[in-house]
Write a structure and sequence with these properties.
binds cytidine-5'-monophosphate, EC 2.7.4.25, alpha/beta, Rossmann fold, globular, five-stranded parallel β-sheet, ATP-binding, 5 strands, 215 residues, P-loop_NTPase, Cytidylate_kin, dCMP kinase activity
Length: 215
């Protein structure tokens, strides 16, 4: 390969385990990691905090162009309302264009990058040498999110989380611009009955095979 960087594209629905998997992969290979969901969340948070409307595409695009990729922190952006607002502004083509430009610039960092989101293998980095599509049934994903909230000592409603997971899927898979779907050349990893460790092992063998071919 002649390019100086190596990109791993990881897509999948909310709570499928792609965040944890992406962080582990980035750590293992010494690559930079970008959780692209945070770019949509940061845009949504800035709009909410400024009291700006969530349905004005020009305003949302302007805010999206001001998002700094360096300072994104999931703990500060994890609130439910931010996630909901993020998936609403994520249907806007101008917002997507602005964030995709920043994500592509990030993907070029040497020696390599891991980007996770919904459209990395299909739109942001269609030439990535490794593409993974990480999924799990809506029931399993809702249960994981529930367990995670409860383990932090908070209370949660499993049925409400399940409805939320399904609503988010419909919005992400049903939108016209860059809907969530596996790239044709993506490796599918269904984590419904797989531990994160097993998913990591599977991902590692896929990545190592491509790296040794490109060496
Ligand atoms: O992954 P996370 O739940 O943080 O993403 C928040 C929302 O941002 C998603 O529901 C989705 O609508 C949007 N998103 C997107 N494209 C990406 C990453 C996230 O549309 N690459």
């Amino acid at each position: 390969m002649t390019t100086k960087t190596f990109t791993i594209a990881i897509d999948g629905p909310a709570a499928a385990g792609k965040g944890t998997l992406s962080r582990r992969i980035a750590e293992q290979y010494g690559f930079h990691h970008l959780d692209t969901g945070l770019t949509y969340r940061a845009t949504a948070k800035a709009l909410l905090e400024a009291g700006l409307p969530l349905d004005d595409e020009a305003v949302a695009e302007k805010i999206a162009r001001e998002v700094e990729l360096g300072g994104l922190d999931r703990d500060m952006l994890s609130q439910h309302e931010i996630g909901e607002a993020a998936s609403k502004i994520a249907v806007m083509p101008a917002v997507r264009r602005a964030l995709v430009e920043a994500q592509r610039r990030f993907s070029e960092k040497a020696p390599g990058t891991v980007l996770d989101g919904r459209d990395i293998g299909t739109v942001v980095c269609p030439d990535a040498p490794v593409k993974l599509y990480v999924t799990a049934s809506p029931e399993v994903r809702a249960r994981r999110r529930y367990d995670e909230i409860v383990s932090r000592g908070a209370t949660a409603d499993l049925d409400a989380i399940f409805e939320d997971v399904k609503r988010r899927d419909e919005r992400d898979m049903g939108r016209a611009d860059s809907p969530l779907k596996p790239a044709v050349d993506a490796h599918l990893l269904d984590t419904s009955e797989m531990s994160i460790e097993a998913a990591f092992q599977a991902a590692q063998s896929i990545i190592d095979a491509v790296l040794s071919r490109n060496a």
